[in-house]
Amino acid sequence: xxxxxxxxxxxxxxxxxxxxxxxxxxxxxxxxxxxxxxxxxxxxxxxxxxxxxxxxxxxxxxxxxxxxxxxxxxxxxxxxxxxxxxxxxxxxxxxxxxxxxxxxxxxxxxxxxxxxxxxxxxxxxxxxxxxxxxxxxxxxxxxxxxxxxxxxxxxxxxxxxxxxxxxxxxxxxxxxxxxxxxxxxxxxxxxxxxxxxxxxxxxxxxxxxxxxxxxxxxxxxxxxxxxxxxxxxxxxxxxxxxxxxxxxxxxxxxx
Length: 255
Prior knowledge:
The protein is α/β, with parallel strands linked by helices and 255 residues long. 43% of the residues lie in helices and 16% in strands. The chain has helices at 30-44, 81-91, 108-115, 142-150, 152-161, 167-173, 185-197, 201-213, 219-230, 235-246, and strands at 5-11, 14-19, 51-55, 60-62, 97-101, 104-106, 118-122, 126-128, 165-166, 178-180.
């Protein structure tokens, strides 16, 4: 198990993944990305874990790609096979994923937050895409995901100037769902994850799949797929309806 990633079961059904490279502001080395991807693959097969919270420390969620690794390869760091594989694994994670962001979320750190389903930001957080300042541009999906999240004008402002925005601005622009006091970020994210974990894990997975589909498919096609999925009869759906009728808490199993 990598020491770059601390793994905790912080609440029933909730796993907390804490980036642990504080000396480099949690820069995303190849080893750290692989450790995250490997753990998310384990969580995929774990029926107990229903939601994951991803965080860093007080100074940084992640300051981005580890530039010290660039001289080790003739390829641009974004094009390395293992790195691409890790990013794709994180992107395809089917369970709800929440980012709890304090401090810096720059470059790849901002792009990692964009892969999460919900972002809780500290008011003092700093989101940014500073790659242009070193003759680069966001290469881990930021040029595509950031405009989809906050719109073209604001995304171009961030990408072309390289200047960061704070957590409150990130929330007002739609990059984060909420901005809270810095010392409340992780507890708020865990509370949200706990709430999600009480729901049907099957319904949560399908809801995430359908929600993300809106970014890659035409509206008429995604609506058609949504209606087909609504015809799916699960034990959780029957249990949810019965529990509502009986005025009790449902007992979801993911089936």
